[in-house]
Specification:
Length: 225
């Protein structure tokens, strides 16, 4: 994909988000677009930054380390989010590099993040990932445990949890999952909900997303090694 194509796609996505915002509740607030740049190199990302996008997401710490320190030096106002599962041995690197970690999905990771925040004096904003479909192969807290887990993160570990994140099961209507995440966030006293990807981000906006994670609809199809 050429830079012109990615910028055109970015414009189209922003237009669809704006249209979906018009449909949902008037007091829901603006939606943040997270451009998911995993598998794409710096040359593919720069035109999207130049077009005005300032929030990006990556799935793997190591891949992000290879391209984002230089990009963030060029564009210091860019926000970088970790969207993929975090291994405990990568907590140090994640806290050092990312501005937001959306995949706090179990006690062990929360503990390691808390240790690194104390050690580094740098505190990324945090989301708890909820496994709304209760899929055994997928990361995330069980919905029945999510509110209590957020409470423990706050009270026992001193973590400032900002919101909840989910990835609905493939092939299912995502709307019930979006509604569940919104209800859980409300119950936990959280006002940020990261939900919706390239195939369903408009529906996510209508159902209460405050950020959507869009990759292929901006950058095009991915080639995996």
């Amino acid at each position: 994909m050429t830079s012109d194509e990615s910028v055109g796609r970015l414009t189209a996505v922003l237009g669809k988000i704006a249209a979906a915002e018009e449909v949902r509740e008037a007091n829901a607030g603006p939606v943040t677009l997270v451009a998911v740049s995993k598998t794409f190199d710096a040359d593919a990302i720069r035109p999207v930054i130049a077009a005005g996008c300032r929030v990006f997401g990556e799935n793997k710490v190591q891949e992000a380390q290879e391209k984002w320190p230089a990009l963030k030096a060029e564009y210091p106002d860019v926000e970088l989010r970790l969207l993929g599962p975090l291994q405990s041995n990568k907590a140090r690197d994640a806290v050092a590099l990312f501005d937001v970690i959306e995949s706090v999905d179990r006690e062990k990771i929360a503990v390691e993040i808390a240790k690194e925040i104390a050690r580094q004096g740098r505190a990324p904003r945090l989301y708890v990932q909820v496994n709304t479909g209760r899929e055994p192969q997928k990361a995330g807290i069980d919905p029945d445990e999510a509110v209590a887990f957020v409470d423990r993160c706050r009270k026992e570990l001193g973590l400032a949890i900002e919101g909840l994140m989910c990835i609905p099961p493939a092939g299912e209507d995502p709307a019930p999952h979006f509604e569940l995440l919104t209800a859980l966030a409300d119950n936990a006293g959280l006002d940020r909900r990261s939900m919706g990807m390239s195939g369903d981000y408009e529906k996510a906006v209508i159902h209460g997303a405050t950020s959507v994670r869009v990759g292929s609809a901006i950058f095009g199809s991915r080639t995996y090694a």
